[in-house]
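Sequence in, structure out. Go.
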Amino acid sequence: MNPLEPPLRWIDGVQRRVRPFAFAFAVVKKFGDDQGGQLAALLTYYGFLSVFPLLLVAVTVLGIVASGDASLQNRVVHSALSQFPVIGSNLQSNIHHLRRNSPVTLTIGVLAALWGSLGISQCAQYVMAQVWSVPRIERPGFLPRLGRSAGLLGVAALVVASSSTLSGLAVVGGDTSLATRVLGIASSAVVNSAMFVAAFRILTPRQVPWRALVTGGLVGGVAWSVLQDVGSYLVLHQLRHMSQLYGFFAGVLGLLWWMYLGAQVFVLSAEVSVVRARRLWPRSLAGPPLTEADRTVLVALARSEVRRPEVAVEALDRPGPGPAR
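Output:
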């Protein structure tokens, strides 16, 4: 017998009996089953390519709409860049609006930037379909995905506007007490939670009901708010070491590091919704035998690869070892 098997089975028994442990382990196990690390890396890649076009569009449109109000421009841009602690100031110094003296150039530039920024939304829709194990044949086509991408951009604009309003109220109040700080964090968590729930609804195929997305959205909003505060220390810590080695490129690496943390929060919070909605706990740590939740997850993963209507996946429940069919 493997000497590690008895303690593993004891730990497995404990986590199955204690519901919070069972739920947390099920989320982590589902994250691994879906290759969540790779999904987060994919989100980071497309997010990195999309963040600059998005900021370009925001700064350009803002420069046209609020050309006579420098205070409003600075407040809105700061609200958008506050989503990237520490690194936001570097981004602000490198993002400038498109020139308005040529309507053709401006139109082409904005359209190209918008098209490039749709990449992160398309990728996020793929991630949500994978997390919920939606069969490929049932996933939305190109045009519906494009419409959802436009909806996600609208949600992002509302979040920036809300953040700008909250920051403006804080500046007007001029109160820097602990109570004001706590109230600001709580307000940010409410806005972020609403953003996550709305984003999950937009990005997730219609087969998944609203109520199944709320828990993960709330968890994601609170986690993102905490990450914005605590993550500042993490990014500063990473930048301090990377700047000694990479100099100018440390800012780019810091941005990638921050976006990867955010992508992991996004995927893990989506997994929370899936595990709770489908009651995918307890999971086996040292199996066999598999639990009912294990079987449900494995069958869903197999059926998610169905690409043609004439193809069906049948799960055979085998109590013992044997060849798979």
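Check: The CA atoms of residues 170 and 274 lie 37 Å apart. Residues 26-303 form one domain.
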